[in-house]
């Protein structure tokens, strides 16, 4: 199994504590900051540490164990982290010069381009295809940095897709839903192709490949359905807001 | 207001229902379909991936559209059900012709003669499409009468 780098749990814990301290400061000065956001960051951090620390290999065959860790770090952990709105929190608590720097960073061309959902999806899913289909050195598959990379790529994708934190330009629902569809399809295709052929240079048993393939296929579904539900509820709430603001002023629409 | 949204919402729900039934009944419960048939070509995998992902995405979108239409006093029932039938029939006909036969993704059932299964599958799909068209006609008539 991938060895857990010792600083990782400490780093995650520090981030969580820093977040909670910042949120507490906000609440102390009278701002509203729901506790579920704090809970989201702790949950995401916990999932990330679990991806490293759970002894997947003692329960699952080797490739399936890798897959379970990948799903946890790259797909499950980013959702609660993104929903905890770390950028919004930072913008509220940082002193003015640091806040200005953060604003100009989030509005920079590079960040804007990275956060365009199709770009973020191409980086995330493209990396996944490279990982499973390109002839990479075998040592890379066991590097602890790989899981961290998967987490960061997954977080970029989720951040761009859900767009709950303020960024320069929030693309419309069609772009984001279309990106989710394309990314989910590319994920399903890769998962299904692993049923028959493992990553080049590896020799996992067919039974292991098939189990991992189905874990990736159906596990991916679960996470992607969660993302779809989040997107749809954003749309539903926005529709509700415009309905309320129009109600009373608008004539009953002709059918 | 709700004619087009009812039709769209119904169609998305129908697509989602058909994909869901296909996945649970034929793949998971009966084990007639195969998760991966080694003879599947790459383009078949892409089509399958798109429809697999699109199926549940359509279901989520359909449910939220339904909730929104309810909030607005809808949906327009014939338009909604027309959409559902068109969505189910359209998915099933595509699955039964393009995916099973043309792309040879997998067969409906293995170790038997697949022809009766293919015919049943596609005839049911056409019946759904016909019902959808009939309901569509009624929905349009209802809308025209209301606007008069």
Automatic annotation (TrEMBL), chain A:
The protein here is known as Cytochrome c oxidase assembly protein
Topology relative to the lipid bilayer, per the entry, is: Multi-pass membrane protein
Q: Does the keyword Cell membrane apply?
A: yes
Q: Which UniProt keywords apply?
A: Cell membrane, Membrane, Transmembrane, Transmembrane helix
> To which species is this protein native?
Streptomyces coeruleorubidus
Q: What is the lineage of its organism?
A: Bacteria, Bacillati, Actinomycetota, Actinomycetes, Kitasatosporales
Tell me the InterPro entries matching this sequence: Caa3_assmbl_CtaG-rel
Write down the superkingdom of origin: Bacteria
Entry's Gene Ontology cellular component terms: plasma membrane
Membrane-traversing stretches: 6-27, 39-56, 68-89, 110-131, 143-164, 173-195, 215-236
